[in-house]
Amino acid sequence: MIDSYAEPVATLGDRLTAAREGAGLDIPAMAEALGLRPETLEGWEVDQAEPTASLMGRIATVTGVSPVWLLTGQGAGPQDASAGAALRAELADLRRLLAEAAARVDRLEEALSHG
Hints:
Distance between the termini: 70 Å
Shape: elongated
Helix content: 55-70%
Largest sheet: none
Radius of gyration: 20 Å
Number of helices: 6
Order of helices and strands: HHHHHH
Structural class: mainly alpha
Number of strands: 0
Strand content: under 5%
């Protein structure tokens, strides 16, 4: 089976796009996470330019892929989209529970202070 993200099938720009999308990030969000202008990231994704080696490491960290995968398409690539969706749903549920717990703590503190 051919890995469609391995050279020479896919470009670095293709893998950058796949990594960003696999992390659930749009271009502005990823550019902000990397401290870049969105136009810079867009240029990389269409292979008009390439990030420096240090930025490749940061991109790998932000997107959860291996730097080797970004460079070659071999190794740990983007997470399955359905797995990412399930993790985001669980995260949203935990945030909701945390907000509810914080509201309960506030109510109890208020009741005790008047008590």
